[in-house]
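Inverse folding, one chain.
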């Protein structure tokens, strides 16, 4: 008979346990943008590929986020995969009250009027197809309609509560 592995002492599930577990999960870093009366955006580590046919992605957004009112009504959003050279940009879009689209952020109006960030590894403009309630967040599902996968560099990661890079 094989001995059972030591699984540690289990804790009751709750927000602190979830945060502690996901601090150990390395995630890619993206910025999601949309246009309302002006451009809005936020840093997301919840970006996921959902399906290839049709091409669907998803991401989570907190309903208390300053970007949520625009995302809640937007027909299209921009999804930007950040490179390791863009830690400052990730910080800017993660910081409450920051002028996210002011200098030094470089951006332009892209397809469907969506703000598209310059210098990213890849970007998509997506048509929102669903907003699914999930606690204090909404899971947004969106279908890619345009994009560019040809940026250069290595991806920015989020791990242990900070932005980091791959190591060789």
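Residues assigned per position:
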């Amino acid at each position: 008979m094989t001995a059972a592995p030591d699984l540690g002492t289990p804790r009751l599930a709750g927000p602190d346990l979830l945060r502690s577990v996901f601090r150990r999960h390395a995630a890619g870093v993206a910025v999601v943008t949309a246009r309302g009366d002006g451009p809005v955006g936020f840093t997301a580590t919840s970006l996921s590929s959902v399906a290839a046919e049709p091409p669907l992605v998803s991401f989570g957004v907190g309903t208390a986020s300053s970007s949520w009112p625009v995302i809640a009504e937007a027909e299209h959003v921009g999804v930007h995969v950040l490179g390791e050279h863009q830690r400052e940009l990730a910080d800017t879009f993660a910081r409450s009250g920051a002028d996210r689209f002011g200098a030094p952020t470089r951006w332009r109006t892209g397809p469907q009027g969506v703000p598209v960030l310059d210098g990213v590894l890849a970007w998509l403009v997506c048509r929102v197809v669903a907003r699914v309630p999930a606690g204090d967040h909404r899971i947004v599902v969106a279908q890619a309609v345009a994009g560019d996968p040809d940026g250069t560099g290595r991806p920015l990661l989020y791990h242990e509560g900070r932005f980091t890079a791959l190591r060789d």
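The first strand starts at residue 27 and ends at 28. The chain has a mean pLDDT of 93.
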